[in-house]
Each structure stands twice: as C-alpha cells, then as structure tokens.
Write a structure and sequence with these properties.
Blueprint (H helix, E strand, L loop, with lengths): L1 H4 L3 H19 L3 H8 L11 H7 L6 E8 L5 E8 L6 E5 L13 H6 L3 E5 L13 H17 L8 E6 L1 H12 L4 E5 L5 H8 L19 H5 L6 E6 L8 H9 L4 E6 L10 H14 L3
Parallel strand pairs: 3-4, 3-5, 5-6, 6-7, 7-8
Antiparallel strand pairs: 1-2, 2-4
Helix pairs in contact: 6-7
C-alpha cells in the first residue's frame, strides 16, 4: 500500500488502464482459444462391432458404400453413402462437434425410415478424415461432400436434403447459401454460434461482436431470415447444451417456408420417439413436394 501511495495519481491510473488492456487481450477469444473451446475432434478408434452395425443397415434394403473424397484444401475425407433403392432423395448428414460417424451409426436408420438415402461424413480431424478442423474448413468439407453426391452419385440440388446436428447446424446453414438444397433440417442447433458461445461461457458477453469474426460467419438467424429452402427445426425443450430458446429465436426470425418439431421431454440431439420423428419429417417433405 505504501508503494501505491507513493505513485502519483495520474501514473497510477495509467498503470491500471494498461493492466486492464493487457488482461483483456490475454483473455480475448482469439482463433486458437475459439478452436479449443468449440472444437473437440473425435478421431478413430472405431466403435466395437462397427462392421456388424453397418451390416444391420442392409436390413433396410440399403446398400452401404465406404467412400473417400477431397476437401477444398486437398485433405482426404471419409464417409459412408447408405443408399436406398427406389428413391433419389438423400440426407447429407453433418454431425456435431464431439463425435464422429462411428458414433452416429444408430441415427442412420431413422433417416432411412424417412424415405431417403444417407450420406454421412467426417470433418477434417474426425474419424478417418485427414487434417485439422476449423470453422471455415468444416464448411468446405460439407461443400465437398455435397459435390461428391453431385459428381459421383449423380444427385441434384433438388434431391439433396441438408441435415445438421448441433454444430453441424451451422455447417448446414453455410452449405445452404453455397449450394442449392431441396430442404434443410436442423436438429438441436443454434440461432448463431456467437449466441451459443455466450450462453455457455458467460464471460464472452463482455466482448463486442467484432471480437468473434469466425463465430459471426455461423449465423443461422441471419441466413434463414432471408429466402431459403424449406426449413424444419427439431429441438428438445430440455436441451442443456444448446437451450431451447435458440430454436425459438431461429423459428421466429426465419421466413417461410418453415416448420417446428418440438420434442417436449427431449435433451440435446434427441429425436423423440421414432414414429413421431419419422412422421414429422415425412409430412414436412410431402407438404413441400420433396
């Protein structure tokens, strides 16, 4: 205290201001910090009995094909194309940040029951895909997956349905402005990545939006507030990871055509009962002539 009292007041104020600036910069959410907070790459190993689980998909008369394709930066990505006969529709599945396609095998039958094939892939750094995940890179990966469906499986934008789960909702939102989609389904998503970050890390609210240039790129409220492909929002009311208010805000902001399927007792990435989910998706697609 004696040391502080010996410092002239103007100089003491200058020291305090400089210290606050340094502290602000140290805590600021730069790209590396954002990467560590947002991305949790889930590489191989594969889950037990993966071959058996893939074989079980054939019970739905589906043909399972393991595929590789390259992203914009040349990294080799890995995925599965699970093809149903007698339909051209395909769900392009972009999963969440804390899993990979091996952990999502059990979701594939639900989408098959909805009447479409499924193409599920891993972002860079996930599963068997090469590289390292970034926000821009994940969007490039989704675009490469779409282009694979067009160029190798001969699908068109009128037949590809973007399906995003959690973080994958932001990826799918970006894909919807890069490529033509027949429809978009967002499960347990966010109205914006910035809001999701601030909901989970309160201290991010202290910083202006300009501190988050990468997060600002994933703003589904802004994307679907403009003309878009038919949109179905799926969200659980008891979601503690991405609160239900995200879905409410997104739905209220989005312009038509849009639909909201609420899982009243569902948590994060919850579909509800199989019959309810399948009925919701099928009616959404039929009503929008997809």
């Amino acid at each position: 205290m004696r040391i502080l009292s010996a410092i002239p007041l103007p100089k003491l104020l200058a020291i305090c201001v400089e210290s606050m600036v340094v502290l602000y910069l140290v805590l600021s959410p730069f790209d590396l910090l954002l990467y560590n907070l947002i991305m949790f790459p889930c590489p191989d190993p594969r889950i037990p009995n993966v071959d058996k689980k893939l074989d079980e998909l054939r019970l739905y008369n589906a043909k399972v094909k393991e595929v590789s394709f390259r992203s914009k930066n040349g990294r080799l990505l890995h995925g599965w194309f699970v093809e149903l006969p007698n339909t051209r529709k395909v769900f392009l599945y972009s999963h969440g940040k804390g899993n990979n396609i091996y952990g999502k095998i059990h979701h594939i039958p639900l989408l098959l029951l909805c009447g479409g094939s499924v193409f599920i892939y891993d972002y860079q750094g996930y599963g068997k895909s090469e590289g390292r995940i970034t926000l821009d890179g994940a969007c490039d990966d989704a675009t490469a997956a779409y282009d694979y469906l067009v160029n190798q499986e001969h699908r068109t934008g009128k037949e590809i349905i973007g399906f995003g789960e959690s973080f994958g909702c932001g990826v799918t939102g970006q894909l919807s402005i890069r490529r033509k989609l027949a429809a978009v389904i967002l499960q347990s998503g966010f109205s914006s990545l910035l809001r999701a970050g601030r909901d989970n890390l309160f201290w991010l609210r202290w910083y202006p939006e300009s501190s988050f240039p990468y997060c600002l790129k994933m703003d589904n409220a802004a994307i679907f507030g403009k003309p878009h492909s038919p949109l179905l929002i799926v969200h659980g009311k008891k979601d503690r990871i991405l609160p239900f208010a995200n879905a409410e805000d997104l739905y209220s902001t989005a312009v038509e055509p849009k639909r909201f399927y609420v899982v009243s007792d569902g948590g994060h990435c919850c579909f509800g009962t199989t019959s309810q989910f399948v009925q919701a998706v099928k009616s959404f697609l039929v009503d929008n002539q997809i």
